[in-house]
Write a structure and sequence with these properties.
This protein is of the alpha+beta class and 103 residues long. It has three helices and four strands; from the N terminus they run αβαβββα.
Length: 103
């Protein structure tokens, strides 16, 4: 085998796609919450300070953790706030689902 051919083989040129074996960060989770507006407001302010996406409308709220964040322990939330569901469709989709007015 000549040097020119060897250079092509060992030079990293490949027709195969690169495969990453790095673990994917966990999907962003959106928590659909229900609770008194004043308590939700305080809770959302705390999460927003930590880089979470937060939205609320009266008694309903959506908080979405950043990708790679482990998320809160729901048992640590105020007792007046109840978890209505969790979705991984993104913050905007969670808001459309949870904060949309009832018909």
């Amino acid at each position: 085998m000549n040097d020119r051919c060897l250079g092509v083989v060992t030079g990293g040129d490949s027709i195969l796609p690169a495969v990453s074996h790095a673990p994917k960060p966990p999907a962003s989770r959106s928590y659909l919450l229900l609770g008194p507006p004043d308590i939700l407001f305080d809770l959302l302010n705390e999460f927003a300070e930590d880089g979470w996406s937060c939205s609320a409308d009266r008694w309903q709220a959506v908080i979405t953790r950043p990708a790679g964040d482990d998320g809160p322990d729901p048992a640590a939330w105020p007792a007046e706030v109840s978890l209505q569901g969790i979705t991984t469709d993104g913050h905007e989709a969670a808001c459309r689902e949870h904060l949309a007015p009832l018909e």
